[in-house]
Amino acid sequence: MPFPRPFHRPFHRLAPAMAIPRAPLVRTLFLRAPVLHIAAIAAAALLATPATAACTLAPDIAVTAGPFSPAAVRAAAVPAQSVRGGLWCDPALLVLLGGNTVRATLRSTNGFRLVRAAGGSIGYTASADPAGNVRFTQGSTVDYMQNNLLDVLGLLGGSGAEMPFFVRPAAAALPAEGRYTDRVTIDWTWYLCTRGISLAGVCLGVEDRGTNRRVTIDLALTVAARSVTVTVTSATVWDPTNEGRNPRDLPGSRRRVALGVANPDLVPLDAGTLALVVPTPAGALVALDGDKVTAGAPIRLADGTPASGVAMDYAGPASTTDDVDFSADAGTSWTFAPVAGDPASEARITHVRLRPRNAMAAQSGFSVSIPYRTR
User: Fold this and answer.
1) What tens digit of pLDDT does each residue of 189-238 get?
2) What residue ranges define each of the domains in the chain, with the CATH number in brackets?
3) β 229-238/254-262 pair status
């Protein structure tokens, strides 16, 4: 029996029934699946973590700086004063992504002047950084996320990050002493995609926003004299029995009285403005022949650290050109010339005046000492 003839169908009719999806569609499906899978995992992880506000606003703030001397203010020697800006942000959530912003718009009630109620004012600058490079003007806006400003301020990676600003006062003339004030407002606007998860400009984390949230800051500057301070110490250094070994305060013993002088101001003390008048202690007389222990001039100056820059010469009790004077009438006149080593002459000295030369450096110190004999 002959085999039946095979059933034939033209190929062009079979092709549509046997068509396979085109390769490009398969490739597209395989590329999109991992992206969607990763995004789903990231979103699920974020949803599992409780959301925390990235930034919170503080109540209104009052800040007082000083006291600073009139001379320091006029010389612009007052350093930039850090002022709380009133916006606190979790440093773990401050990430320098392209879409994150923390913006401050600052306004000064007195036009960047600190005003004294009794009259007078002191100008100042305000900036987002201590160096004054990112400066505020009236109504201007500064983005704290710009140009690594957060890193300059040390706000990345810390335990807390309150946005500061910096005030630096300066006056062309010597300001009067008193309290100077201004009121500043800052409108904060921020947008943060927390935990730094952002793909193609889309935040896959938790968004934290604030718009024109205002903080009021009352600034005050105290201007007051910063006078030289003097501390006095006394120590017995020699006695007739023990000499320099554990000396005691006996008749005829020697002791040294030292005056420690400090300039706490931010500016130098002008030359020729410092004089120390030292009264002779009760029960003692000035020992112009020395303390029996140390060599050199009996009345001497020792500079401190940092160096003060002052100098003082003592050429002898009769000298009229050195920097040490003696009085026998409680400071009424300074022409008395005692004789060194003569107890009767030395006993007449009621006061010693010391006149250090040169300007005294800011925040420096020195000491001067005078030997005495116990009666």
Assistant:
1) 998 887 655 566 677 777 888 999 999 999 999 999 999 999 999 999 99
2) 55-223 (2.60.40), 229-374 (no CATH)
3) antiparallel
The confidence score (pLDDT) of residue 342 equals 96
Q: Is the pLDDT of residue 26 over 70?
A: no
- Cα gap 235→227, rounded to integer Å: 27
Compute φ and ψ for 111, nearest 5 degrees.
65, 45
In 49-148, which ranges are continuous DSSP H helix? 70-74
Helix (H, G, I), strand (E, B) or coil at 375: coil
Token digits for 278?
């030292």
Q: Which pTM does this prediction carry?
A: 0.77
Residues 6+ apart with CB under 8 A from 64: 220, 221, 222
Q: What is the per-residue pLDDT for 224?
A: 98
Q: Give the Cβ contact number of residue 131 at 10 Å.
A: 11
pLDDT band for position 16 (cuts 50, 70, 90): very low
Please tell me whether the peptide bond between 67 and the residue prior to it is cis, using omega within 30 degrees of 0: yes
Q: Yes or no: say if 181 and 78 are a contact pair by the CB < 8 Å rule.
A: no
Alpha helices (H) in the chain, listed in sequence order: 11-17, 23-48, 70-74, 149-152, 343-346
Q: Which residues contact 82 (CB under 8 A, 6 or more apart)?
A: 130, 164, 166
Phi, psi of 12 (to 5 degrees): -70, -20
Cα–Cα distance between 278 and 299 in angstroms, integer? 12
